Amino acid sequence: MTGWEPLGPAPDQPVWEVLPHPLRARLAEIAAAAVRGLPPADLPATLRPFARFAPRKLGRVGGGPLLAELAGSPVFRASVLAWWVEHRTNGADAGRADPLAAAAAAVLAGSTDAAALVARVAERADTATLRAERDAARARADKLTAELDRLRAELADTRDGARGRETERDHESRRMRTKLSEQGERLRQAREEAEARRGELAELRSSAAERVSEAEAARDRERTRAGQMRTRAARASAAAGQAEDAAGRVRQADQARLELLVETLTGAVAGLRRELALGGGGPRPADMVTGAGDRSAGGGTVNDAAGLERLLGLPAVHLIVDGYNVSKTGYPDLALFDQRARLVGQLGVLAARTGAEVTCVFDGASVLVGPDRRPRGVRVLFSDPGVPADDVIRALVVAEPAGRPVVVVSADRAVVDGVRRDGARPVASSVLLERLARG
Question: I need a labelling partner for 159 at 20 to 30 A (CA). Which of 81, 101, 141, 258 fits?
């Protein structure tokens, strides 16, 4: 017989079930290498997905399917054997020099001595395992022997040290007994002296208790008077602080009103001078009529952009905007943050072009973050929690000095009526939006 050719029927199933691990690994390795070299048509359907894998990866990932096909498919087994015989170095006889390769060839060829060769491989594997376990046991025994010798040496050193410490403890014990005897004698003398001092101490304690009681009573009286004085001083200080703060606020408000009034009067004088330069003469007859006053500071709501332009052209005019009333009228689909940002930006452009003082008031009950950028010339205010923006607008109007033109933009009837009574000129929200849209 030449080569590793099948000698008969497929090997019995029990031979494949009792294959030792080294032989199973060698068979999987041979099959993995053969799968890469066989035509796809000769491969079983279960192994075709693995045909692209490298032999090493195929043997690791597809070992189970490879062995299953070798055990159950005589055709695939014969193909693998034929491929191995063809590509094995030095032919099939080279494999017989290796017991593991010989057993693999016998199993693949289904030879009659396959069981014996498999048993020999299993025996060699068991022998190798036992030798490895023996060597590991010897290594552990050597390690334990060395550890035992080290522990014995440490025990001997410990015993020698213990004997030395025991001798030292005996000397220390005798020294402490002598010292304790001396201290006992001194303690007896101290007790006798303490008895002699106890009587004196009792008298001193009685006298000291009386003096302490008197001192505590005097201290309590002084503390009561000091507390009363501190309370009075705190009240006086608080009252003085409140009075000083109130006076400061009054002075600040008066100064602001005075500055605005002077600015308004200066603008009015400048306007009069321009009118006189255009040919205006002295007082007109209608100006000399008594019994009537000029109420141009207040009036009806302005409903057109031209009227707003005339108001913004007045000297030192102050434009107060009801923020949400205007933004929700002009762009209600935007979020509140975006409404505020857009309105404040447009008001900045208006302030830069007209020179008017612009204040925009928003209801601050639900506002966490104000606009990121505030253009020059626009004052942005948020009402305090619990305070509606309408009240802040009316307070701004009242704070202005008499004679300064104040324009309030809002479509809220309550705001319009309130600021009109206080002398401001109301303007509809739609009019301001129309003016802002023109840029």
Answer: 141
